[in-house]
Amino acid sequence: SREWHLVARPHGWPKAEDFALREAPVTAPGEGRVLVRNLYFSVDPYMRGRMNDVKSYTPPFKLDHPMEGGAVGEVIASNAEGLAVGDHVLHGLGWREYADVPAEHAVKVDASLAPLSAYLGVLGMTGLTAYAGLFEVASFKEGDVVFVSGAAGAVGSQVGQMAKLKGASRVIGSAGSDEKVKLLVEEYGFDAAFNYKNGPVAEQLREAAPDGIDVYFDNVGGEHLEAAISSLNLHGRVTVCGMIAQYNATEPTPGPRNLALVIGKRLRIQGMLVGDHAALQPQFVQDVAGWLASGELKYRETFVEGIENGFDAFTGLLRGENTGKMIVSLA
Ligand code: NDP
Known about the structure:
The chain is an alpha/beta fold. The chain folds into two domains: about 1-120 and about 300-330, Medium-chain alcohol dehydrogenases, catalytic domain (Quinone Oxidoreductase, Chain A, domain 1, Alpha-Beta Complex), CATH 3.90.180; about 125-275, Rossmann fold, CATH 3.40.50. The protein is about 25% helix and about 25% strand. The protein contains nine helices and 15 strands. The strands form three sheets. Strands 3, 4, 5, 6, 7, 14 and 15 form a seven-stranded mixed β-sheet that branches. Strands 10-9-8-11-12-13 form a six-stranded parallel β-sheet, with helices on both faces. α7 links the parallel β12 and β13. About 45% of the residues are buried. The model has no long low-confidence stretch (mean pLDDT about 100). NADPH dihydro-nicotinamide-adenine-dinucleotide phosphate binds next to α2, α3 and α9.
């Protein structure tokens, strides 16, 4: 069985030499455990943070140990009650072909309800992030004008569509290519979208939202956050979900220069972690499954084939090579 190890802590952009694909023995599962053949594993932006040796909300990856992350696979041997050979499970031991998983950390998923990869994206962690970040953290209400960055990604594409489904008066998205911008408007029903590489974000946002915005869902930080603060209306709300523009920065990055606007506009800027919102899971699944079944909610996935391409999938994600959820397929 092959598995990815972090062998050096990246400085700036991760380099191939910081990672190694290594062989590991496959063993029979111990008491209360299952052996899972992984079919898909997730690469996510937060993993960049776990490559640094700093105290954070998740502990750093250990050097010369298998990396971790969301995965879906098939149970091929079981030594645990309630899980049988042939069951499909979602668990946290990705970045490897075979995983020895404690049963309490494996959640059974149903391949007949949705494609298994969906449990890593639209019906999984990134979908819940969008749902909780918009409806709970940003206190979204009908009639709001919503702006989301990273809008063609796994989280952002769902934020924009969910806002439309719940009665946003206008939804604006930004993304890093003209194709992605086209997708936002033509397939996902955004009212306006722009390519942040084509000109200053503040100007493009002002044009797309002439009457300002009420909610900003931030996946990017930096110039996007500053532009959003300028365009936010009185009592506007910001969900700070991610700041991917600075994950590979080697120096602290400057904050928004217009932060003082927060006072007069009485803005609320709120960080979030999806793990705090597990209580929303049943309602999230019910809503999203319904929207998927009716065809009202759309999603894309970008598959990278083969465990040997795991590192490239991860850096490709940071470079924007994905549309929708980036997934490594081992099937
Ligand atoms: P995405 O599917 O959105 O993939 C990342 C995208 O970021 C890329 O496709 C790329 O798209 C964009 N990007 C990369 N660099 C930049 C840049 N410098 N400026 C603007 N955009 C950039 O990933 P996710 O949907 O999984 O995650 C989106 C965000 O949400 C991330 O910031 C992530 O850390 C955060 N997150 C936070 C969670 C939480 O609990 N707080 C949970 C899950 C995700 P493009 O081509 O448009 O540049």
